[in-house]
Amino acid sequence: MSDIFREIDEEVRREKAAAIWSKYSTVFITVAVIAVAGVAGWQFWQHQERQKAEAVGAKFETAVRAARDGNGSEAESLLSELSANAPAGYRQLARFRLAGEVGKRDPAAGAAAFDALANDGSLDANYRDLARLRAGLLRVDLVPYAELRSALEPLATPTGNWRHSAREALGIAALKGNLFEDAGRWFDAIVTDADAPPGLRQRVELYLTLVRGGVVETKN
């Protein structure tokens, strides 16, 4: 008896399923097509984006190689294009590299390009400080010590990420201006910093030798 009831129950369920399919089959098929199309579209979009990223990466590598080989004009041309059109990550890299390339042939123009990066509020603060440092390094031979100090001293604090390079640049600028007390102070800050890189320490020891020697006077 139970088998009969079970068969009847299954038959009823089949009839209900057939009725539902008859009524909503178009909806089911449409949803399935949309789902398949969505997955295919997503995969195609990912493929396209991957190809674009690979093309941008290749162009950036070409620019870097051109710069390394001394072909500055080609490097600047490629980097300018990437700075304008590349995705955000590569665009930022290209802007920094472009400013550096410009600085090789025209330090003042390169410093101005780094100033633009330093003043770009869309960049992370650490990168903006790096741009300030790079601008200052290009200006070591261009501006008086007081002007350079105003720009770089905020980066030379004990907790500054770029303090080592900023202190070295300030020390060199002070040394060039025969401001030996200031130079010695910046170089001492490097020597006494436990996190200062070994190579920098070696250079600073040479700088300190010049500081201790003071102004060299010549006799007529």
Question: Could you characterize the architecture of this molecule?
Answer:
Helix 2 packs antiparallel against helix 3 (88-105) and helix 6 runs antiparallel to helix 7. 80% of the residues lie in helices and 0% in strands. The protein starts with a helix and ends in a 7-residue tail after the last helix. The chain is mainly α and 220 residues long. Among the domains are: 76-138; 144-214. It is built from nine helices and no strands.
Give a quick summary of the entry:
This protein is mostly helical and 220 residues long.
The total of beta strands comes to 0
Name the poorly predicted regions: 216-220
Largest beta-sheet details? none
- The whole-number mean of residue pLDDT values reads 82
Keywords: Membrane, Transmembrane, Transmembrane helix
Pfam family, one: TPR_21
Protein name: Tetratricopeptide repeat protein
Domain Ancillary SecYEG translocon subunit/Cell division coordinator CpoB TPR: 21-158
Q: Layout of helices and strands, plus pairs?
A:
Blueprint: H1 2-68, H2 72-85, H3 88-105, H4 107-118, H5 125-138, H6 145-152, H7 163-176, H8 180-191, H9 198-213
